[in-house]
Amino acid sequence: MKLILLGAPGAGKGSQAVKLTTTLNVPHISTGDAFRMNIKNGTEIGIYAKSFMDKGLLVPDEVTIKIVESRLQQPDCEKGFMLDGFPRSIPQAEALDKITDIDFVINIDVDLAVILKRLTGRLSCGCGAIFHKSTYSESACDKCGGTLFTRDDDKEETILKRLDAYKQTTEPLIDYYKSKGKLFNARGNGSIDECFEQILSILKK
Ligand code: AMP
Fold first, then answer.
1. Splitting the chain (205 residues) into consecutive groups of 10 residues, what average pLDDT does each group show?
2. What is the pTM of this model?
3. Which secondary structure element, helix H or strand E, spans residue 124, and what is its range?
């Protein structure tokens, strides 16, 4: 199964991806994670990507497309994959169409007020788990024991710029995939499990 998770920053794409990758047994490909890994390892791509990410801007298409293109050539993607955070622009979607055919695009739809609350209190773990300061007071992840951190781009000022980039550049993908008959909406205002159940029932159809 070839799947795309679409949605604004904070919609819950990462949380759903962690659950879906196990259930569907396909690799989870997150361009955000790929950039953060490059930043951690101090690579040229990482240094370049960070200069955009820290400002709440999208990393230019050319670099992002190359990363996904080479990842999709890995043997573990032959049986399918789940893209989280890619594509984020029409040129990225067009490039992806040239590489492969996608089966489902799940758009996780969340109200702006919920998104703002989630992102401003978000605590992340390297294993992909996500917590919120209002409901979690530990400094370690309860899934893997890793130390929790606030992402550099989860500062309030940067969050607003990321949401703007989403509106301008990523949201048009909803119509792009709707016109191809591939778009399915899941409401993401509620709990992770509620959203997960909706996605599973979409995929069963
Ligand atoms: P994420 O972890 O998906 O929220 O991504 C974090 C940041 O990485 C984004 O705000 C962008 O700066 C960058 N990024 C991730 N995926 C893409 C993409 N497909 N295109 C451009 N920039 C991206």
1. 96 94 95 95 97 95 97 95 97 97 97 91 90 92 94 88 96 98 97 96 91
2. 0.90
3. strand 122-124
